[in-house]
Amino acid sequence: MQFWALIVDSFRESRDRKIFWVMLIIELFVAAAMFCVSFEPGRVDFLFGLWTIKTDSFTALSGLAHDKIAAIAVTGVLDLVMGWIGVALAIVATAGFFPSLLERGGVDVVLAKPISRAGLFLGKYVGSMVFVLFHAVFFIFLTFLIIGFRWGTWLPGYLLCIPLLVILFSYVYCISAWAGVRFRSAAVAINISIGAWVIFAGIQGVGDLFDAFPDWKKNRWAYHTSSVARWVVPKTHDVTYLAGKWSGAAVSTALVPKMDEADRSTMDRAGEAELERMNLNPLYTIGSSLLFEAVIVAFAIRRFSRTDY
Amino acid sequence: MVALTEMTNWAVDLIDVRKNYPRNIQALRGVNIQVGRGEIFGLLGPNGAGKTTLVKIMMTVVRPTHALGTILGRPLGHRGKLARIGYLPENHRFPGYLKGLQLLDYYAALAKVPRATRRTRGPMLLEQLGLSQWGDMRIDKYSKGMMQRLGIAQALMNDPEMVVLDEPTDGLDPVGRRDVRQLFLELRRAGKTVFLNSHLLSELEMVCDRVAILVEGLVARQGTLSELTEHTVEFRITFSGDVLPIKNKLVDMQAAVDGDLIVLSGHDATKVNAVIDLLRKQGLTIESVQPHRFSLEDILVEAMGGPQSQNQERKGVARGNRDLQRPV
Q1: Do the interacting molecules here have an ipTM over 0.95?
Q2: A39 beta partners
Q3: I want to staple A300 with a disulfide (CB 3.0 to 4.6 A). Which of A178, B7, B37, B142 is the partner?
Q4: Which helix (H) or strand (E) covers residue B115, if one does?
Q5: Substitution target from B110, B139, B154, B161 for chain A, most A beta carbons within 10 A
């Protein structure tokens, strides 16, 4: 009952913020843009046929075409939503949840209720996830239907992007929640969490470079430091790749044999590294990242439980 | 056995509550307070005395450096018992995105009040506090007084055994204050304990059965209003004529002379008669004799002059209480 009350309250709070509606409008805009496109044998129509591009790529909507459409959906849509814009907006929208909970005069009432501080924290934390879950379900399901009905390709694996999007957000949100409890300021929480996200991306980027240029691994100290750091931090890049892989995107390993030699020869070293990552173990990718999140959440709960308000 | 019964009758029994903040700031220096079940208790003291800190410790918002005692028969800090306590903090700030009824429902759900009860009790309390027309209005549209009444309503949503209210009449107009005072009396009639923290002494004086005066982190005075004022009566005698020849005699009789006014501390009427006899003997005209009982404000001002530590005296009681608590 208490947990549900906290979740409902978090959702009401998020609905009260303008950014909630801004995100909804962006999602509708992207969905509408996708709806304006259709893939026909020998051509792609934009704006319901006002503008047409002739191409053989989608002829007869073969298996290859299916994968290419999936690739367009994943790279065009998921990169937008799961990449910088979507998660950044979600962070901005939710960064104020803990600072507003801890406002002087507001926190006293909730702390005086028969609920442990850990329970209170987790209720609010999960409430923030519900905000993202709502947007993820709305956007992914809407675009899933558009891809199916308008583009003629049904991608059941694409729906797995819903939990993946929530998980990806949670990796960054744990930092935001900790900063919110520690500094009680939405602005500070946003800056710290976005900063942490950039650091996560940087660490993974350095790791990719070691994969792309094996000679660099001779500097063993740097390589081991990078490997350890890469293991510790949330694998935000890899979650996006997992989403692509599970959606059946064209860059998946399943498609590689279908590529012709010309395509294969143009594949650069970074591409090889990318393919290597496509073989990543979901348990490792998600599990190790969740471990990081659990540690940060434990620190935040400890702080919350030991602070006088 | 008598002591055991007395102990369990305390709604609040705080023993040696201390709170130190960094940089050696001692907000509470060993507070001992007892509040009987079903009584209206007032906590008063000057700014910075530690009243709000003490209330927050009772409500688990602030962690004490050291504390013993019980609230509603459970150790201080027992979270489960908070379901039976209602609390209104000072300068509360409720989320502006909620409507009146939503706010009551939210806080009541956190207090583990069943949904069916919440649905009936919310409108009833809004009606009782004059907010029945405002239940579906966002609370960022509420005036300060309405917000205060809503705050009191949320404190009562769980039908508590005890309500702890920090400055409950803050922001209310005179009619609102009277209504809230009536509410306190109704709660007492219903057997609830009301713990008030207020700097409005006249408000406390009108409703409280017992009060404690907190000064610099210590309880300077504690008891019923009559207990506190029992020894704080003085007689004021006004007269006309020259008092100078008998001034030394009056001083010997512990009377203070100030122009044509003589102030005699205490409630011993025989002393008053002696002074009157002396004045008459001197041929002075007595114009009036008025007994004057100290107000709560007088007691507070006097208490602020020098709080007395009760630690040594209370520690013995604390040990006794701990022994008695085991079988309970």
Answers
A1: no
A2: A44
A3: A178
A4: helix B115-128
A5: B110
Q: pLDDT by residue for chain A (309 residues), tens digit each?
A: 889 999 999 999 999 989 999 999 988 998 998 889 887 777 778 887 788 877 766 554 555 566 666 666 666 666 766 667 888 889 999 999 999 999 888 899 999 999 999 999 999 999 999 999 999 999 999 989 998 888 777 888 888 889 988 998 999 999 999 999 999 999 999 999 999 999 998 998 898 888 888 888 888 888 899 989 988 999 888 887 787 777 765 443 333 334 444 444 444 454 555 555 556 788 888 999 999 999 999 999 999 999 998
How many domains are contained in chain B? 2
C-alpha dist (Å) from residue B80 to B83, B162, B225: 6, 14, 33
What CATH number does the domain containing B21 carry?
Answer: 3.40.50.300
Instruction: Spell out which residues of chain A touch residue B64, defining contact as CB-CB under 8 Å.
Output: none
Closest-CA residue in chain B for A108? B61
B20 is in which domain, residue-wise?
A: 2-228+298-325
Together in a domain, B260 and B240: yes
Residue B58 neighbours by CB under 8 Å, 6+ apart: B12, B14, B71, B76, B164, B195
A6–B contact, CB cutoff 8 A: yes
Same domain? B286 vs B151: no
Interface A–B counts its CB contacts (< 8 A) at 88
CA distance A93 to chain B (A): 15
B106 → closest Cβ in A9, A15, A306: A9
Q: Which CATH number belongs to the domain containing residue B243 in this structure? A: 3.30.70
The verdict on B157 and B238 lying in the same domain is no
Cβ atoms A34, A150 nearer than 8 A: yes
In this structure, the answer to whether residues B166 and B287 fall within a common structural domain is: no
Chain B contact present for A105, CB below 8 A: yes
